[in-house]
Write a structure and sequence with these properties.
The chain is mostly helical. It has two domains: 3-154, no CATH class; 224-455, MetI-like (MetI-like fold, Orthogonal Bundle). 74% of the residues lie in helices and 1% in strands. The chain contains 16 helices and two strands. It has helices spanning 3-31, 40-75, 87-102, 111-148, 156-196, 199-204, 228-260, 263-274, 281-302, 312-322, 324-336, 340-348, 353-381, 385-390, 408-415, 425-455, and strands at residues 208-209, 224-225. Strands 1-2 form a two-stranded antiparallel sheet. It is flat and about 80 Å long. It starts with a helix and ends in a 5-residue tail after the last helix.
């Protein structure tokens, strides 16, 4: 029996347990002799949780260990004695036998796979029934024990709330531990890189050429790992050009939607604007590479400026369009949170609507706007696809927006593409770049949250 089928069966048993415990609790509630501590629903949830959660936990653990038990059973069978000794060929035969046993395929090209398929099928069925039996036993034992505790004085609400708190705590710990795991893994590999390359050269060097030669006597056998051109390209595209596009358009769209648009227009325009945030970045990359970049190149050549078919301006413009919803949404919420009394007071003193917006609403909503801008910057500097498809791969330290530049994320993709050895500075440089990018985006998010928290106004 499949794991999903068993999980659905457990959920059905949980529903039965919830109904049974709730019915028992409602019986002594209806008697009216003793005022119960908890409502019947809490008793139902308590029994359902104890009947389902331990069984699901065992099912998850069993799903991870049963595969090894099945493999050992198959390998111990007489039919497996004739398997080839070569690893890849043996794996192919076992994979074909497993596919036959599970019904994924109906034909086999290897006679040994056809001989092993019944053994696989028997082992899978045997351990599936064991898992089902133990899972149901745990479910019935947990549900019965919890059901026996249902009584007027039982503090079911307290127990259920503690379980919910435990689940929320585990979820929070998973998020924190995931962040720590990312940081530790990046830090470990980055330290290996910095043991081969000087941190000063990496952080302040002006030449980026990580291509390492195969032989020591080849030209350029010691690659250059100065990351300043990458940092500048990231800032130039994500924090300069993209923000020049996103901040005015995002802020003005928020002002229009909150102050000028009718409710009917707002109901249509705001979802349409936020659709931009849901468009895959590869679609923006195609748009930038096929439409915007050629137009930028032709425009630059018409002005007499040397222009490349891949430019920072093309990537920055499209990236700015992509992050408009981030700026607009935060600005919209901040402006809408300003009390109506401040608007009315400004208008009553003779100010026009535009003066009210410029001198009252925007200053009052400025913390939220700044927080949205910082979050948008952190989103922009981590973008990859648009830069790969529209800005190029050349690590140039230039302020010409018509020239080709590259960013940190693009170089990470390039360094880790294909078969790589994780003992050379070329590959380990990707982890050092990832660590810098992680710290920068983390700092931007922290600053954005601090700005919003520190300068947020509490209106009544």
């Amino acid at each position: 029996m499949k794991t999903t089928t068993i999980a659905l069966l457990l959920l059905g048993l949980g529903l039965v347990a919830w109904l049974a415990a709730r019915g028992k609790a409602m019986a002594f509630v209806g008697a009216g002799k003793i005022r119960p501590h908890s409502l019947p629903n809490y008793h139902g949830w308590y029994v359902a949780i104890w009947g389902v959660v331990p069984a699901l936990a065992f099912l998850a653990i069993w799903g991870n260990i049963s595969g090894g038990l099945i493999f050992q059973t198959v390998m111990a069978s007489p039919e497996a004695a004739s398997l080839p000794t070569f690893g890849m060929q043996r794996s192919a035969v076992l994979g074909e036998a497993y596919a036959l046993a599970t019904g994924e395929t109906a034909a086999a090209f290897n006679p040994q796979a056809r001989a092993l398929a019944p053994v696989y099928a028997r082992a899978i069925a045997f351990y599936s029934w064991i898992g089902l039996a133990v899972t149901l036993l745990i479910a019935f034992a947990g549900g019965a024990l919890a059901y026996s505790r249902v009584s007027p004085n039982f503090r079911a609400r307290t127990r259920v709330e503690r379980m919910v708190m435990a689940v929320l705590l585990v979820a929070s710990l998973i998020a924190v531990l995931t962040t720590l795991g990312i940081l530790v893994s990046l830090l470990f590999e980055s330290l290996r890189f910095f043991s081969m390359v000087s941190p000063a050269e990496f952080l302040f060097g002006l030449n980026w050429s990580p291509q390492m030669a195969i032989r020591a006597d080849q030209a350029g056998s010691s690659g250059a790992f100065g990351a300043i051109p990458l940092f500048w390209g990231t800032i130039f595209i994500g924090a300069v050009i993209a923000m020049i596009v996103a901040i005015p358009l995002g802020l003005m769209s928020a002002i229009y939607l909150t102050q000028y648009a009718s409710p009917r227009v707002r109901a249509w325009m705001k979802p349409l604007l936020e659709i931009l945030a849901g468009v895959p970045t590869v679609v923006y990359g195609y748009f930038a590479a096929l439409t915007v970049a050629p137009a930028i190149r032709d425009f630059g050549l018409a002005l007499g400026i040397p222009s490349s078919s891949e430019s920072a301006l093309a990537a920055g413009l499209v990236m700015g369009i992509m992050i408009i919803p981030f700026v607009s949404s935060m600005a919209d919420d901040s402006i809408a949170a300003v009390p109506q009394a401040m608007r009315d007071g400004s208008l009553a003193m003779g100010a026009t609507r535009s003066e009210t917006i410029r001198k009252v609403l925007v200053p009052a909503a400025l913390p939220g706007v700044v927080g949205g801008v910082l979050l948008a910057v952190s989103r922009a500097i981590g973008e990859t696809m648009i830069v790969v498809m529209a800005a190029g791969l050349a690590a140039n330290l230039t302020a010409n927006p018509f020239a080709s530049v590259t960013t940190v994320t693009t170089q990470i993709v390039q360094l880790l593409t294909g078969d790589q050895e994780f003992d050379s500075p070329k590959t380990l440089a990707a982890f050092a770049l990832g660590l810098v990018l992680f710290l920068v985006t983390l700092a931007l998010n922290i600053v954005a949250l601090r700005v919003v928290k520190k300068y947020r106004e509490a209106y009544e």
